[in-house]
Amino acid sequence: MLGGSGKAEGKRVALVGGVLIDGTGKDPLENSVVVTNAAVIEEVGRSDKVKLPAGCHIFDVSGKTVMPGMMDLHVHLSLGDEPIVPRGGVMCGLEQSLPMLGIQVFRRARRTLEMGFTTVRDVGDWGYATVALRDAIAGGIVEGPRVLSSGQMITATGGHADLMPLWLERTDDVTNVADGVDGVLKAVRRQVKMHVDWIKFFATGGVMDSYDEQEFTDEEMATLINESHSKGRRVCTHAVQSRGMLAAVKAGVDTVEHGSYLTEEITELMIEKGIYFVPTLYAPFSLVERGSEFGLPQAYVEKARPLLKPHFESFRLAHQAGVKIALGTDAGYTPCPHGTNAFELELMVDNGMSEMESIVAATRTAAEALGLAEKLGTIAQGKWADLIVVDGNPLEEIKTLQREEKIALVMKEGSIFMNRLPD
């Protein structure tokens, strides 16, 4: 059954008897016990080594797997399953009212949490809807995953996210269009004013504008990143083409998104600078393999097809070189529906990662990339109690994490959001 509000209210909970994958990459712990107390993990160990506190609520999870809550570092909650190609010059989804968009954002976030993703980073929304959602979830007004929001995306005039046609009055309500050093300074400060967690900008074009190899100048990128860092914000960048990606890495971006045309030079710099890679394998794969099913024009699908092979090759290059890789899907970008985020782990495994490495990418490494490793990403004493129980062993079959009926329990900061365990 689905859980209620689930606040632990100071009560201890014990998950007893499961196989523990703690997120560090270490071998699983058989016959484990995880004790939570309110929002934090109180004790972890083997069942013969841990004494259960008196009065704690015990869940028998024998035959199941206990894992940290997973994280997706590249979602768009303002986008759903509908095609995202322009309609009448405006990106699909913008024809609805902002209040309706807020309802949709909430629904999509809940679905993501139901599938075991307790933290998401939204890397571009409309009307700061995910900033509002973040605050509503943090304030206990609604239930959902922990949200880190970048609010509006910063793009250049004519750039990948400059959505409004010239014959419409230009406003900054849709995306943050900026040009020149002064322009990007203002764009960053506008985002900070709206209390975003991250700054997102476009270093290059995307599938349909792949000719745009570098959207901002080197000086503009350096200014944008330095100003963001001075305001305590980390920076992620949409980067498909090599030239703009290299410029962003040289300027000190914190995470590279997509990275379809990585080079050895770029990977070496990323390792040297400690820059994380969020590959979003799901996005190009689904465009090519599922785009027609979701109503995308065939021309759009065919435009994406040449990108798929180099995208996967870039992932393998980064993995073999030792670049730090965190999970991200581009969920919301058609055809990557919210709630299907775990498909990214399957693609990671298909392209060279072990099952354990893919889980680490979705847990510990993701938490490190977000700057939350002290509290999230692994199951250890004193960390927040973000836990999931899986009916099966994803180390034997990574697809298990995609099956709704196999997600047996979802806990976020000690609150049980969803529970399918037998009474």
Structure description:
By secondary structure, the chain is of the alpha/beta class. It has 2 domains: 99 residues, Urease, subunit C, domain 1 (Roll), CATH 2.30.40; 301 residues, Metal-dependent hydrolases (TIM Barrel, Alpha-Beta Barrel), CATH 3.20.20. It contains 11 helices and 17 strands. The strands form 3 sheets. Strands 1, 2, 3, 4, 5, 15, 16 and 17 form an 8-stranded mixed sheet that branches. A 6-stranded parallel sheet has the order 10-9-11-12-13-14. Strands 6-7-8 form a 3-stranded parallel sheet, with helices on both faces. The radius of gyration is 21 Å and the shape is globular. It starts with 11 loop residues before the first strand and ends with a strand.
Kindly state the percentage of residues in helix. Answer: 25-40%
CATH architecture of the largest domain: Alpha-Beta Barrel
Instruction: Sketch the major β-sheet.
Output: 8 strands, mixed
If you average the pLDDT, what whole number results?
Answer: 91
Taken as a percent bin, the fraction of beta residues is 15-25%
Here the CATH topology of the largest domain equals TIM Barrel
Which regions have little confidence, pLDDT < 50, spanning 5+ residues? 1-9, 86-90
Report the principal-axis shape.
globular
Q: How many helical stretches?
A: 11
N/C terminus separation: 10 Å
CATH class of the largest domain: Alpha Beta
User: What do we call the CATH homologous superfamily of the largest domain?
Assistant: Metal-dependent hydrolases
Estimated radius of gyration: 21 Å
Q: What is the helix/strand order?
A: EEEEEEHEHEEEHEHEHEHEHHHHHEEE
Derived from helix and strand composition plus strand pairing, the structural class reads alpha/beta
The tally of strands reads: 17
How many domains would you count in the coordinates? 2
